[in-house]
Design a protein that fits this description.
The complex is a heterodimer. By secondary structure, chain A is an alpha+beta fold. Chain A has nine helices and nine strands. In chain A, β6 and β7 form a beta hairpin. Chain A is elongated, with a radius of gyration of 27 Å.
Chain lengths: ~300, ~400
């Protein structure tokens, strides 16, 4: 087939029509940078050997975020393992372990590269410069963040006509003002420490080395799912205090990276291939018709 | 010159409005058994949708913090879009490979695909808790380009446009707009190429959504190849749907289909059946390789393992074999049965990944099971789609031949 101007323009038009959305869908920035504008990610170190299960952190969190205040004098709440909820961003669970009772605080882990942030198609879920993972009201309510969170932290208000996603924000507003997260400030046992993630890992290692035999040699969150803002040290293996230890060290956004990288390639090569096949079959068709005409 | 054309168009516009008005009136009997059953369900569905919008998701659905996605995503979107895959496969065969054999069913298939996207992908709207923000991914600085869902949202939208362009010549023929018909007809191949590229990616993309559900989807189903598996399975899901839909359409709309088409139809079914068989074989083989490389043999001897084998053998390997045999011995009944089995297989597969094998460790009493209201709304969506499909088929040249003036020159 002769490539005349008309065919050329048609092909060009199709190419542009395909390439335009292709380029806009390029995955430009897959990884949240660990250090943004020379600021470090902040985090919290939870020393489960120090936690006394007083639930002051639950109270402080509820007060700081205008949520229903729990009655922390009622110890029966600890009888069963609880999950965070739309009205409770953090809580303490009690576990029976090989070394007796251990308390462990639960809340958003503030991953270095959060699955929920990569999942969000409107950037409602954000990794802030200081490390906090926060939710914003431009959310569509698709709940893909809930599917993508390895720790099942985002909670959705099913009973509201104007629902929100509720989760720990690392007290992002307080951090802006230079304050500590409410839970850290409220902890009477110094089980919680707030600092840069780098400092916290050093502190955790210091404690593990110094008091040999007291801790198991593992900082939960140092490598899990690519590293998290909340870090835990413990005297007992983490499976015994409600942690998933099968999540691996790959950051969750990496899991769909392969697919996203294939997108621009497919969008450019596939149409080119199809146009090629179409040109060949068109020629065949014409030859056939010409021969048919002769008969 | 231009003013003459403009005047012509103006006069036409008036006629067209009158024509559309006359066409809006129902044709045929209103009190058919299908109408009597479907109308109340659709009505109830509409009421429930209003209730859901007023009172929130929890008032209507059984969704929970553990199971954020139910049948509106797992069935309506995942299965609906897979079944709509017939459109991109057949447009590839008809417009790219230029096989005339399937020309007579291309319009019905494209229409089905278009409506499936409008209704089933449209079901996302109901599932969005904050639906008033549905246009957020389209503009502003709110492009979550790292999200697979962002890609799917854009692809759904663009693909609906592509399918509309592919179907639009039928609308122009219906309205008797010759000039427009010519312009729209010339856009078809471009729309087909764009449509195939978009389909490849968002069919795979629906699977890629679950890549970040690692640790939540049972290891027998979770693999990094889910996107590839979703794409390959959408080929035979779509073709099986074409076989199934065609079987029903040929009964219901038999008056619209010329005799010649009935005769050629068997040949077409055999071709579709061969396509299904090959795609299913590739799919089965890929699943088999993934199972071997995943070292999950021990898991096969568990309840979830038996369920996995039921899906892979009963709903993939067996219908695949039936398609081969059906095509070989020209056994239409075997082909149709295989199509139904393959479709059940797709439903089971998509529900497994999104609901059944999702957090498989959660005890039965705490698992998600759709509420009757979720099911009624789903039924209402399907039935409305059928109503719209019927309305269009009864008016536009979908099954029958286009008007003489619109016949393509070389035919």
């Amino acid at each position: 087939m002769r490539m005349d101007r008309r065919t050329f323009l048609k092909g060009l038009g199709t190419g542009i029509a395909v390439a335009a959305p292709g380029c806009s869908l390029l995955p430009c920035r897959l990884e949240a940078k660990e250090v943004v504008a020379s600021k470090e990610f902040m985090g919290v170190l939870v020393d489960t050997t120090r936690c006394i299960g007083c639930r002051s952190c639950e109270l402080a969190c509820a007060e700081a975020h205008a949520m229903p205040v729990p009655d922390i004098s009622d110890a029966s709440a600890l009888d069963k393992i609880r999950q965070t909820s739309v009205t409770q961003w953090t809580l303490v669970n009690r576990y029976q372990t090989e070394k007796g009772e251990v308390f462990a605080k639960k809340q958003c882990m503030h991953c270095n590269q959060p699955g929920c942030v990569a999942a969000c198609l409107v950037k409602a879920m954000q990794k802030r410069e200081n490390g906090a993972v926060t939710w914003d009201t431009n959310c569509m309510g698709c709940r893909y963040c809930m599917i993508s969170c390895p720790f099942d932290i985002p909670k959705f208000e099913y009973d509201s006509a104007f629902p929100k996603i509720q989760k720990c924000s690392l007290c992002w507003e307080r951090l802006q003002k230079g304050e500590k997260p409410a839970c850290v400030e409220a902890c009477p046992a110094e089980a919680l420490a707030f600092d840069s993630r780098r400092e916290l890992i050093e502190e955790a290692n210091r404690r593990i080395y110094k008091e040999s035999g007291k801790y198991i040699s593992h900082i939960y969150g140092e490598r899990e799912v690519g590293g998290t803002g909340y870090l835990y040290i413990s005297a007992v293996p983490f499976e015994q205090i409600g942690f998933r230890t099968d999540l691996g060290t790959t950051a969750y956004p990496e899991l769909s990276k392969g697919f996203l990288y294939s997108v621009p390639i497919v969008l450019l090569l596939w149409p080119a291939f199809l146009i090629g096949v179409n040109t060949i079959t068109k020629r065949k068709d014409e030859v056939q018709r010409r021969e048919g005409g002769k008969k | 010159m231009n003013t003459v054309i403009a005047a012509e168009e103006k006069r036409e516009l008036k006629d067209i409005v009158a024509f559309i008005r006359s066409e809006l009136k129902p044709k045929g009997k209103l009190l058919t058994p299908f109408n009597l059953i479907s109308a109340p369900i659709i009505l109830l569905g509409v009421l429930l949708i209003l209730y859901r919008l007023a009172r929130g998701m929890g008032a209507v659905t059984n969704l929970s913090q553990e199971f954020p996605w139910g049948i509106w995503i797992g069935f309506d979107v995942m299965v609906g879009v897979a079944f709509a895959g017939g459109a991109y496969v057949l447009t590839f065969v008809v417009y790219i490979l230029r096989s005339d054999k399937y020309h007579s069913i291309i319009r019905a298939t494209v229409l089905n695909g278009l409506l499936a996207y409008v209704f089933y992908a449209g079901a996302i709207f109901l599932d969005l808790g904050r639906w008033w923000n549905i246009t957020n991914p389209l503009w502003g600085n709110k492009f979550g380009v790292n999200s697979v869902l962002f890609l799917i949202a854009w692809h759904f939208l663009l693909y609906m446009l592509a399918e509309f362009v592919e179907f639009s010549p039928a609308i122009a023929e219906w309205l008797g707009l010759r000039k427009l018909r010519k312009i729209l007809g010339s856009l078809t191949v471009g729309a087909v190429i764009v449509g195939i590229a978009l389909s490849t990616l968002h069919q795979a993309g629906l699977g890629a959504l679950f890549m970040m559900a690692k640790g939540k989807v049972h290891p027998l189903w979770y693999t990094e190849f889910i996107p590839v598996l979703f794409f390959v399975s959408s080929i035979f899901a779509g073709l099986s749907m074409v076989i199934f839909e065609g079987t029903i359409s040929h009964r219901v709309f038999s008056d619209k289909i010329s005799h010649e088409d009935h005769a050629a139809y068997d040949d077409m079914l055999i071709g579709l059946s061969q396509g299904c068989a090959v795609a299913m074989f590739v799919y089965f083989f890929a699943q088999f390789l993934i199972l071997i490389h995943g070292w999950h043999w021990a898991l096969l001897n568990t309840p979830m393992g038996y369920w996995y084998l039921t899906e892979m053998v009963g709903l993939v390997a067996i219908p695949c074999f039936m398609f081969f045999q059906g095509a070989r011995y020209r056994n239409m009944l075997l082909i149709r049965t295989a199509a139904i089995l393959a479709m059940i297989g797709i439903i089971v597969n998509r529900l497994n990944i999104s609901i059944i094998a999702f957090k498989w460790w959660v005890p039965f009493s705490e698992r998600y099971f759709p509420s009757w209201m979720e099911i009624v709304i789903t039924l209402a969506i399907i039935l409305t789609e059928i109503w719209v499909f019927r309305w269009i088929v009864n008016r536009m040249p979908v099954f029958g031949k286009p008007p003489a003036w619109a016949e393509e020159k070389h035919q």
